[in-house]
Design goal:
Layout: H1 20-35, H2 42-49, H3 53-59, H4 63-80, H5 91-106, H6 110-119, H7 124-144, H8 151-172, H9 181-193, H10 205-211
Helix pairs in contact: 1-2, 1-4, 1-6, 4-5, 4-7, 5-9, 7-8, 8-9
């Protein structure tokens, strides 16, 4: 089961100020969940956020930029808590933990992601931008798990892990279980299939080193 799923409450002494960026992201995801990606406008997002459209423009120049902002915020949430690494833990287990943290952080936005999954393929520039953002995020997840992303092997590890994550995300989109057990099972199965790339990024490296 994924680690790092407990939150920490403040002492209630003060309420942190919500930034424009956060207000815009929350408003955008709410409107996307209601209207879909193609129909929602920046003006509608500004209205939902309670901000003048100039403030939205100064923070995010496009709807795609808002999605990139969400991706960065999710990355920061996942990377904020250090991994509790055990001595005999495999790299696959560490990346599993980080990707499940990611699904946990995305739970409030599941309705919006259902719309995005259906509609982004019909907006090629946005789909390409979202794909690039995902690869960037996955690279950080691998690095946090102690898996190098440099060189050809690292690039392959990033792409294979992103594919495993996307496959698990399809399950997550309809997973209403309290512990996300179906999502965890799918992610674990997918990561097992690419485990040889999640060490050095080079299949057979250890075997070749041993025989040499």
């Amino acid at each position: 089961m994924a680690k790092g799923r407990s939150g920490r409450r403040g002492n209630g002494s003060s309420v942190p100020e919500v930034s424009d960026a956060d207000r815009i992201i929350e408003a955008a995801m709410a409107r996307i969940a209601e209207q879909g990606w193609r129909r929602v406008s920046l003006a509608a997002i500004a209205d939902a956020a309670g901000l003048p459209i100039l403030r939205v423009y100064r923070t995010y120049r496009s709807k795609t930029a808002i999605l990139r902002g969400l991706a960065r915020r999710i990355d920061e949430a996942v990377l904020a808590a250090p991994l509790d690494i055990e001595a005999d833990e495999r790299p696959r287990d560490r990346i599993f933990d980080l990707l499940m943290r990611r699904f946990d952080a995305l739970q409030p936005y599941k309705p919006a992601f259902a719309k995005l999954r259906r509609e982004l393929p019909f907006d090629p520039p946005a789909a390409l931008a979202a794909g690039a953002a995902l690869l960037h995020s996955i690279a950080w997840m691998l690095e946090a798990a102690g898996i190098s992303t440099t060189g050809v092997g690292g690039i392959i590890a990033v792409k294979l892990t992103a594919a495993a994550y996307v496959a698990a995300q399809r399950v997550w989109s309809s997973d209403d279980s309290p512990d996300l057990a179906p999502t965890m099972a799918e992610l674990d199965r997918r990561l097992r299939g690419i485990e040889r790339w999640l060490t050095t990024g080079r299949p057979g490296y250890r075997e070749a080193a041993a025989s040499g």
